[in-house]
Recover the amino acids of this structure.
């Protein structure tokens, strides 16, 4: 498997002709997308490049919306995100608009914090991470052409389940709740991603 340094060098070389380079990092829940995105960001910065992480999770619908629609038990499924808003953000990023505010999802609070970070017009490497960046079905399929490079993190289902159990325990949920949530929601999302994602430029 390629190391973070090797991936960064590869992407830096490919991005030489571009003033901005947008990298999509996809994979199922608990695959390590946010961790890998942060590692790549830090590696780019160590090379003297400008880079920022843009999380798809900032476009979660609020629980008030999900409750009104009856979708709260499936929070995290493809239909529980503002996909059109996320697509609009990616187009703004491609257009290099100055000072683009982005939302960040606070897992401990279970809500998105608007304007939690800013992308400047000078930022070259945009590391977009999220579960459904490569989903084949519309409207998610509109996203693939907005990335210059895509990376998919492939992790065995059994390991994903172990990591999800650890995540829900760390957030204060008991084992019964965690097992039920994983079985009734997380596993459905994992299998949707695994079965219905467009091929990435690089799989790790």
């Amino acid at each position: 498997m390629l190391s973070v340094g090797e991936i960064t060098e590869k992407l830096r070389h490919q991005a030489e002709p571009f003033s901005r380079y947008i990298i999509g990092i996809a994979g199922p829940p608990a695959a390590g997308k946010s961790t890998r995105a942060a590692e790549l960001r830090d590696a780019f910065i160590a090379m003297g490049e400008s880079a920022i992480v843009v999380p798809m999770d900032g476009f979660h619908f609020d629980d008030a919306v999900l409750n009104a629609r009856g979708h709260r038990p499936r929070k995290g499924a493809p239909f529980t995100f503002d996909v059109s808003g996320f697509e609009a953000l990616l187009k703004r990023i491609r257009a290099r608009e100055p000072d683009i505010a982005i939302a960040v999802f606070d897992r401990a609070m279970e809500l998105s914090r608007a304007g939690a970070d800013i992308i400047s017009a000078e930022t070259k490497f945009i590391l977009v991470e999220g579960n459904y960046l490569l989903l084949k079905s519309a409207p998610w399929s509109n996203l693939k052409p907005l990335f210059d490079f895509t990376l998919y993190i492939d992790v065995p289902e059994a390991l994903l389940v172990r990591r999800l159990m650890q995540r829900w325990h760390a957030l204060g949920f008991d084992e019964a709740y965690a097992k039920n949530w994983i079985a009734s929601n997380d596993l459905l999302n994992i299998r949707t991603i695994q079965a219905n994602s467009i091929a990435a430029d690089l799989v790790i």
Observations:
- The chain has six helices and seven strands.
- Strands lie at 21-26, 51-55, 100-106, 111-119, 125-130, 149-152, 202-203.
